[in-house]
Amino acid sequence: MTQNSSRFRRWLPLILIIAGAIAGGIYLREYLTFESLRENREALLAYRAAHPFWAPAIFMLAYIVIVAFSLPGASAATLTGGFLFGVFPGVVFNVVAATLGAVAIFLAVRTGLGQGLKDRIDASDGAVRRLTDGITANEVPVLLSMRLVPVVPFFIANLIPAFLGVATWRFAWTTLVGIIPGGLVYTWVGSGLGEVFARGEAPNLGIIFEPYILGPILGLAALSLLPIVLKFLRRA
Predict the structure, then answer these.
(1) 20 to 30 A Cα–Cα from 160, which one of 24, 133, 145, 170?
(2) What is the pLDDT of residues 60-96, one digit of tens each?
(3) Burial class (CB in 10 A: 0-12, 13-18, 19+), 83
(4) Domain layout of the chain by residue ranges
């Protein structure tokens, strides 16, 4: 196998992700919205009732594609999971699909860019190297806190670990665990969409920033960072 062929195969997953993201953003944007869910809710409910096995499978596959290609509409997809399947098992479908999609883009980015970038970082010195060394030394707490704190965009939280060479299994389980609180909140909001539709209103996606919800999530994030704090105190 030639060097150019090997390089192309390494970059192919990332190229497909980028091409899919561009195409999806252009052609699917109008379908991945709350308004589209509102307009098609009866058809979706009818399909779920008629196909109890295929409906969850197709939903999860669609969610995986949305996350893997970083398409707009992840929030609408999470609401749809709650609307169609309730808080449970809707939250399971949402969290598992989001995790699988995140792993897909993580692997694509790491295969195409991650190792080369990590090698350059390892060979460097200065602030960037110190920052990456600090993150690497505290991978699990940092990964969990990035998922738990809603101010970190989901897409960015998929890229940073890929650039730093985080192990796939560690990325996967911290993603799965870390997105459960936020996923549960949005699935719960989605489960009540029937009443929202009946009133002609839109769901309150800002509910996750309400103190009674954001407070416990930030508490979990702080708890995840406790090992770093204790390590710092021991060194002091």
Answers:
(1) 24
(2) 999 999 999 988 888 889 999 999 999 999 999 999 9
(3) buried
(4) 3-235
